[in-house]
Amino acid sequence: MARKPLIAGNWKMHGVLVDACQLAAGLKAHCRGLDDRDVLVAPPFTVISEVSHILRDTAIILAGQNVCWEGKGAFTGEISPVMLRDAGASAALIGHSERRQLFGESDSLVNRRLKGALQFGLTAILCIGETLEEREANRTLDVLERQLRAGLADVGGAQMSSVVVAYEPVWAIGTGKTATSAQAQEAHAFIRHVLADLFEKDIADQVRIVYGGSVKPTNIDELMAQPDIDGALVGGAALDVESFGRIIHFASSR
Ligand SMILES: O=C(CO)COP(=O)(O)O
Questions:
Q1: Is residue 254 a part of any domain in this protein?
Q2: I need a surface site. Which of 10, 56, 71, 167 has the fewest CB within 10 A?
Q3: What ipTM was reported for this prediction?
């Protein structure tokens, strides 16, 4: 079965209510009638509920930018999977490099969050990626394998239909430097190879692996033409409705 492309926008810490509503309304117009691909947005927690009202009659998927592993409790500053669902989200980003680098989130914390998300019925988008230093030291594949194995520890094959992997090389995030489509394809093929080792080949072949890091209207077509690139996780360009709209409408030659 062919994997359905997924174009996701991570709004990061951008947008108060009025901006978010404007962006969501604009997006709605761009997504009408698109059923051969999934579109997802991850707004800041504070606006998810309002955005979900605006998008209620669309197929656009809503995600949190992070999620706790418990349904409720004494976890000051965290948002639970139950709360995300209550606000209208059905997915969560987990292990984004900004969480790992700026907030010290470890592989084991990422794994805990991922298992919690799955347990409460969310789709988990597991983000992995190497730093520039790691790439220059030829450690890219080792880092990806470690992050994948640790992030997916104790996850069963049957749960993988609710997991998306996002490959985001840290050096390409917000820098304007995109990995070449060949570099991205190499990483994605390797990720699929590790998934086949962790689970079964059939399962690995079903998992969507999306690329993130300076995705723009000008490079989306080439990225999407690669056999193991199943979509994009877009930061900066997802904040502009025209550019995200053009990315969503990538011309698929796969
Ligand atoms: O981190 C990203 C998406 O999660 C990528 O961000 P940019 O598209 O701004 O490089």
A1: no
A2: 56
A3: 0.99
Tens of pLDDT along 93-102? 999 999 999 9
Known catalytic residue at 133:
no
Asked if the structure places residue 253 within a domain, the reply is no
Residue 228 has what DSSP assignment?
T
Residue 27: domain span: 6-248
Domains in the chain: how many in total? 1
Please report whether residue 106 resides in a domain.
Answer: yes
Q: Is 144 a domain residue?
A: yes
Tell me if the pTM is above 0.90.
yes
The binding-site residues of ligand 1, defined as CB within 6 angstroms of any ligand atom, are 10, 96, 168, 173-174, 212-215, 233-237
Where the chain has pLDDT below 70, the residues are: 1, 252-254
Cα of 83 to ligand 1 centre, how many Å? 25
The span from the first CA to the last CA of the chain, in angstroms, equals 14
What CATH number does residue 45 fall under? Answer: 3.20.20.70
- Please list the residues that pair with 64 across neighbouring strands: 92
- Of ligand 1's listed atoms, the one at least distance from the Cα of 213 is 10
What are the CA-CA distances from residue 226 to residues 86, 129, 142, 200 (Å)?
A: 37, 18, 22, 22
Q: What are phi and psi of 191, to 5 degrees?
A: -60, -45
